[in-house]
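STRUCTURE REQUEST FORM
Protein name: Putative membrane protein
Source organism: Granulicella aggregans
Requested output: structure tokens
Priority: standard
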Amino acid sequence: MPTLIRFLRLLSIVVWVGGIIFFAFVLAPVAFSVLPSQHQAGSVVGGALRVLDILGLVSGAIFWLTTVLLFRESDPAHKRRYEIQLLLSAVMLLATAYLHAGILPAMEQDRVQSGGDIEAAAKDNPAKMHFEQLHKRSERLEGAILFLGLGLVLLIARESPPQTQ
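Status: completed
Returned output:
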């Protein structure tokens, strides 16, 4: 059972962080360079981000729960590292939930209020200006989630292998 828990824990963080890396460095740049309009690319990227957030929430919950199980079974000398990992993953989960339930719906509302195509709206359109603010916030938040996730991967890489008896 401990091997299954460690496997699920590792897989969950790999899926979450790997998904963010793929999204940021492959999907979004390719969509904006290949699709004929920014509106179409934004639709693809926005849809993919909603799926990525759900994947992150599920993966994050699995990571958090499996880390709790390892924490409960660990000796006192190793509890601190799990506490740090639980804290980092909780921040990542909260940020992902905020992005998914707060920022993305507000961006979609701004897009609709600006006539459906945010790029076609006038620069002084209040909905467009708010959209741009939210877009910057979402980029920073996703970057922070990635940074924390890479920190978790580093902490996991530094863990001692389990002792066999």
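Reviewer notes: Residues 2-157 form one domain. The helical segments are 2-34, 38-73, 76-113, 126-157.
Form closed.
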